[in-house]
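Re: that chain you flagged

S.,

Sorry for the slow reply, it's been a week of failed gels. I finally had a moment to sit down with the sequence you sent. For the record, here it is as I used it:
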Amino acid sequence: MAGHHGNNQNPGAVLGFMGRLSGAMVAPVVLYMVLWQVGRGLISEYAGSLQQGTMITLLSVMIPGLGVLASVFIAGRRSGVLIGGGVMLLFFAYLYVSTAVVLSWGPPLQTLLGVALAAAVARWCPSLGEELFYPGRR
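Prediction finished late last night. Pasting the structure tokens below so you have them in one place:
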């Protein structure tokens, strides 16, 4: 009886579920960090002083949206929007409050806009498999 814990008849399915769940939670944060570093480098090198504000605003909308779409790709449309959107908003709120540079409504609203656009575009995003939380429903 050693090794038989619970009613786990298919351990491969459990590992697949946990892998996709973990990936859907980590992917938005990793993309956010990497794309901001790349974007910041490109903006400081190639954008003029007048264009920097516009480019930062575009990145503030696009990067959270891409993070949510990465989660949609891993977890499915409904599950990905719920996981990716929640992770993006919580991670951004943590970063924004912890830096406390200038507290204004612009950056949080830009992040919300990016998450909302990604939720709307998620319909056309491919996914690795069926829905993570609601299998059989697309």
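What I noticed first: The chain has a mean pLDDT of 84.

Talk soon,
D.
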